[in-house]
Amino acid sequence: MPEKPFSPLYSSIYALVGKIPSGYVSTYGQIARQIGCTARTVGFAMAALPPGHNVPWQRVINSQGKISPRLDGEGNILQRDLLEAEGLQFNQKGRIDLNQYGWLFTEKQNG
Questions:
Q1: Domains delineated in the chain
Q2: What is the number of other CB atoms lying within 10 angstroms of the CB of residue 70?
């Protein structure tokens, strides 16, 4: 069965996440404000990514600078490993300094 295409909204989210360079992160809320949707919708879009995609999902974190919990629990470990491999550092509370590593989009995106 062929893969179902993504909705235009999810495609916009994925395109924006794809603009976050290695070594930086953005938050669900920042992406939502750029696209014109809710942070929860961004989370749903990240969770809907199929295996083998090329969207750098690991670069999307919560507004506290933390990795959001995953249902399986293993995604958290993978996400942290991927971010550390890109050079990001976590503090003792498991947070990333958004002032240092937060990516600021230069213009509003169309959702």
A1: 8-101 (1.10.10.10)
A2: 14
**DSSP single-letter state for residue 59:** G
| Radius of gyration of the chain, Cα coordinates, nearest whole angstrom | 14
Helix (H, G, I), strand (E, B) or coil at 91: coil
Instruction: List the chain pLDDT tens, one digit each, 111 residues.
Output: 344 567 999 999 999 999 999 999 999 999 999 999 999 999 999 999 988 899 999 999 999 999 988 766 667 889 999 999 999 999 999 999 999 999 998 766 554
- Quote helix, strand, coil % in the chain, to nearest 5: 40, 5, 50
Q: Which two tokens stand for residue 98?
A: 């958004």
Nearest to 58 by CA among 48, 67, 70: 67
Give this prediction's pTM.
0.88
Distance between CA atoms of residues 103 and 105, nearest Å: 6
Tokens of 5: 């295409």
